[in-house]
Each structure stands twice: as structure tokens, then as C-alpha cells.
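Homework help board

Subject: predicted structure for assignment chain

Our instructor gave us this sequence and asked us to write out the predicted structure in C-alpha cell form, then describe one feature. I got the C-alpha cells but I'm not sure how to describe them. Can anyone check?
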Amino acid sequence: MPEQQGHFQRAITLFDAVMIVTGSMIGSGIFIVSADISRQVGSSGWLLVVWLLTGVITLAGAVSYGELASMFPKVGGQYVYLREAYNKLVAFLYGWTLFLVIQTGVIAAVGVAFAKFTGVLIPWFSVKNVLIKTGPLVGDYAFEFSSVQLLAILLIVGITAINARGVRAGKLIQNVLSSTKLVALALLILGGLALGLNAEAVQANFHDMWTAVRYPAPGVTAAPLPLSLSGLVVAIGMAMTGSLFSSDSWNNIGFAGEEIVNPERTLVRSMAIGTAIVTALYILVNVVYLLALPLVGSPEATTIAGRGIQYATDDRVATAVAEHVLGPVGAVVMAVLIMLSTFGANNGIILSGARAYYAMAKDGLFFPGLARLNAAGVPARALWAQCLWACLLCLSGSYGQLLNYVMFSVILFYVITIIGIFVLRRTRPDAPRPYRAWGYPVLPIIYVVLASIFCVILLVAEDTALFSRRGLMLVALGVPVFFLFGKRFANNPTE
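My C-alpha cell output:
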């Protein structure tokens, strides 16, 4: 008996879309990455500059990208924009990298973060609780499977199963969780401003805001290193790996173009509104961090204030601030908030990403079986393929390594996509454009220049070069794959 196919349902309203944008963006990063940023740049002023610059780049990208979203409000989002602006090869390279690293890497990283914060409530979930360990496999490498990886995989499988039941189930969960964490973040900001003000931290953080110093990572024995101007530029670029990761996924709503009510307007408005809300919240949260805890600390200190923002336990800055404000109960409250946040982020990312693989398969550039909708009108096979690969990624690499792989590829394709606006203005000048990129051509050029500088820094900086170059190699590997696999089907798309 043939499998029953449904059709896409236009069920996502503007409110739903904004909740998907904000919910996908706000995951674990804002609660963690400020610790690493503070070690990279070493001062409160430059910490805030990193977050401000990240907000400018993200907003510039979103308001520029909106032109493409309004022109092609189709399922597949960025994959479709690249196909229309360039060709199927460029689109395939994006989809290939999206599946291998970008979308699935984010899903894995956020799943691991969820599991680690669950460990605050249930200590059994710990990277130290190794359930399976093999002997040496390659050299000194031995495979380990911890309870954290187990929970991350169970989370990804569970969310995938929910979204396979239909877009309405996925968006309902997204609306509830996104609304909850927006309110919770607002309460964290208000509570921190009202109750967390620490005069000693304010004095330490703001009497000298601009002396840039690089501090060693936890466990590394090294002296703080004053930064020259060129060293500061590199440090900012490296620090932005975490802040850009925390601000990413604003484009995911575009993947669901054919499931959105009035997509020509809703896509642009939801990306602009969502990124503006998240950017404002992120900057305010970091101000609260600086008002509550000293930025500079010591990894050997036994008190929250002594460890500071730089060496908060396991980099959990938000947890340290909550514990400073509320006492031991604060750590529990923050753990619950971050669990909700990461669950909601993965729900939005899982919901949207599979639509791109569906679009690729419809074009004959990916496994043909993924070009099918189930009876509920969702690409269930694409969802489960994404789930399988994300679960495998949970078994390899650390949170930080996944970030380095992901962010270089993400920003590289954002740059190529924004350049596509200029390409289409030249090749299709008369095509309908319900929305034209605000500030064109200046703002899109600013985005391309700043984002390109970031990519170059990741390729040359010592701490990120290895993973960024591997990410570039993965993109390049897609070229022979396209000609060996994808091109075979390119002229016979699935109808």
C-alpha cells in the first residue's frame, strides 16, 4: 500500500514566526559564552563591543536577507535563494554543509548543553559518568559514551518525533517555550538590576573598561597577555565565534516558507522583529553580568565573586549571577530556565532544517526518499535523517569544537547569500520584490565586509584555524559529491 502524502499547511502566523526566530536564536550560548569572550578580550568595554558588533552584524544580515525571503517564500529557504541567485551547485554546497555541519552541528551542540544543565538538577547526567568506554581505537583515542550524550540523543529523538506529527504540534511547543524564556530573560534582567548590584564588581569592571588582555582558558597555565591593536582585532574575531553562535538561527524561519501565512511580509517582519528583540536582551543580560560579578577572576577561587565572569564554574555565567542574587536556589532556577531555553531552541531548529533537505531532494540533489511529506504534511523522512546525523555528531567533538566547525560555515554562506542580492538586482532587475533590502547597497556591503573579516580571522587565528579549515574542506568536498551523486539527478527533479 503506497504511503499517504499530505501537503504543506499554511499554519504559521506572524506571532508564530517571531517565536520561531527568537526561540531558535536563544539557546544555551547567552548563558555560557560570555566567560570565554571575557577571557579573549579581558575587559568589560570590549566584552560589550563584541556583543554590540554581533548585534549589528546580525541585524544587518537579517534586514538584507529579507529581500531574498520575500522574493522566494518557498520551503527550503536559503537553499532556494542560492539556487535562484547562482546555480544548483552553489545551492547544493550549502545544503550539503547544512546537513553535515551547520544545522545538525547546532542541534548536537544545543542538545549537549541541555544535558549538561540537566546535570545541575540530576547529577547522574555528567560528562564524568561514562556509560561505555572502549580500549584505544586509533593511537591513544578511546571512544567514550557518557550520560550527557545519552540525554542529548534522547532529546533530539523526542523533539523529532513531536515535529513529525505536524507543524501545528511543533509551533505550539515553540510558542509556549519561546514566550516563557523571553519572560524569564526579562525577569533575569530586572531581578539582576534590582537585587544583584555589586558595588565592588561595578568598580572593578568600569573604572578601566578598555585595557585589552587575553587570559588563559581554565586548566591552562599561562600569564595574562596584553593585546596590541592587531591582537585585539584577532581576539574580537575569535570571541565572536561564541556570540555569533548565540545570535544565529534567525534565518531558520525561511526554511518553512510555504507553511507561513502571508510569507512575503511575515518572513521579513519576523526576522527583523525577532533579531531586534534578541539583540536587545543579549546586551542587557551582559550588562547585568557586569553589574553583579567582576569580569576578572581566578580559576582557583572558591567563591562566585572570586572566580568572576571569566572563570565561572563550567563557564555558566548566568548560573553564577543567579546564585549571587538568589543564593543556592538561583542555580536551580537558572538550570531550569536554560533547559527550557535549549529545548525550545532545538525544537525550532529541528522543525525548520528538514525543509531544506526536502527542497534539495525535490530538485534531485539529495536522497529521493526525502522528497516526501507524510499524512500530517511534514517531511518526516527528512526530519529523521537529520535526527540520525545530529545524534552521531553528539558522539564526537566538544561543544567548543562544534561551534568552530559550525560558525565558519554559517557565516561563509551568509556572505555568499547576501552577495546574491546584488547578483539578482543585476540579473533579474524586474522581478517582484515585495521588500527591498533596507539601506541597500550600504548595509549589505557592511555585512559582507564585516562577516568576511570574521571568516578570515577564523582561518588564520591559532585557536580556530584547524577547525575552520576543516569546515572549508567539508564545503569543498561537496563539489565532487555533487558531480558524482547530485548531478546524476539534477535534470530529473522529483515531482
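Reply (TA_rk): Your C-alpha cells look well-formed. For the description, you could write something like this. The mean pLDDT is 88. That's the kind of observation they're looking for.
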